[in-house]
Design a protein that fits this description.
Layout: E1 8-11, H1 16-31, E2 36-43, H2 54-71, E3 77-84, H3 86-97, E4 101-105, H4 111-118, H5 120-128, E5 133-136, E6 146-150, H6 155-167, E7 172-179, H7 184-189, H8 194-217, E8 228-234, H9 239-249, E9 253-257, H10 263-272, E10 276-280
Parallel strand pairs: 1-2, 1-4, 2-3, 4-5, 6-7, 6-9, 7-8, 9-10
Antiparallel strand pairs: 5-10
Helix pairs in contact: 3-5, 4-5, 9-10
Pfam family, one: Usp
Protein name: UspA domain-containing protein
Family: Belongs to the universal stress protein A family.
């Protein structure tokens, strides 16, 4: 678990969807005994032509937040009101608060904000963020006890898995890896007979099993290996396949890296997932 001195940061517009994000942020702050910063940005863009004084906005927000303060009296929450661009304000608040996790939603007061969160701005925040981003996709109550991590066994994927375990040390983890094998017909065209093709495929299976064992051995497991389940199958990785496996595993959170092979599908999975998504850019070094 991350040190309690590093707070959580939640960006919200206090729309109905924004209140769902807030509820999950307060619950996480309570469970992990962390301070919570609540960021609201009043846009000074074409989408928000009417500028209201920050003091008035803050007063209105404090009133709207009263039910949360009442339900979670043990959470030390601080409201931050900013005017400007959403993306820039969020990145600035991350630095200002030294937060350990950012929570955002996928829709706001209108379709324009929805396009913001699911579009290029959201991608830029994720890729610019120095901390993991938890994107809330649903209203389900969850303590994130079952986490699904697609992996290519790369160093960056290893870092993402360990980061996830660090954030949620009591979770059960499903690691999902797809083994890509050349088609038999193509191998036959290269002159391999059936026995050689079978041996080649078996070698790939053995190599994948060895990589999986090495990957799991390097995980920093606060609760032991019994909480890790390895799922491997032959095929081609896709967002559709990943989400199908998430459903089968009954996971309540997907953890994605934005570097490595899986990164090609990360935004598709984020956009299509009915489950909340933890996403972060890790370096392979």
């Amino acid at each position: 678990m991350l040190s309690s001195k590093f707070p959580l940061l939640v960006a919200t517009d206090l729309s109905p969807t924004g209140k769902v994000v807030l509820e999950k942020a307060f619950k996480l702050a309570k469970r992990y005994h962390k301070p919570l910063f609540i960021l609201h940005v009043s846009e000074t863009t074409l989408f928000a032509p009417k500028i209201i004084e920050l003091t008035q906005i803050e007063a209105n927000l404090c009133k709207l937040l009263e039910p949360f303060y009442a339900r979670y009296p043990e959470v030390k929450a601080t409201l931050l009101c900013r005017q400007g661009g959403i993306e820039e304000s969020i990145i600035s608040a991350i630095k200002e608060t030294q937060a350990s996790l950012l929570l955002i939603g996928t829709s706001g007061e209108d379709n324009l904000l929805r396009e913001f969160f699911l579009g290029s701005h959201c991608r830029k925040i994720i890729r610019s963020s120095t901390i993991p981003v938890l994107v809330v996709k649903n209203e389900e109550e969850s303590d994130y006890s079952k986490i699904f991590i697609p992996t290519d066994f790369s160093p960056s994927s290893q870092k993402m898995a360990n980061l996830t375990l660090h954030l949620f040390p009591h979770a059960y983890i499903s690691l999902f890896h797809v083994i890509l094998k050349p088609f038999e017909q193509r191998l036959g065209m290269y002159g391999l007979d059936k026995d050689e093709i079978l041996r080649y495929h078996k070698d790939i299976d053995n190599q994948s099993a060895s990589e999986a064992d090495h990957f799991i051995e390097k995980l920093k497991l606060p609760s032991g290996k019994h909480r890790i389940k390895l799922l491997m199958e032959t095929g081609v990785f896709s967002a559709k396949l990943c989400l199908q496996k998430v459903k089968e595993a009954q996971s309540d959170l997907i953890a994605l890296n934005t570097t490595g092979n899986i990164s090609f599908f990360s935004m598709d999975i984020l956009n299509q997932s009915p489950k909340d998504v933890l996403i972060f850019k890790t370096d392979s070094e």
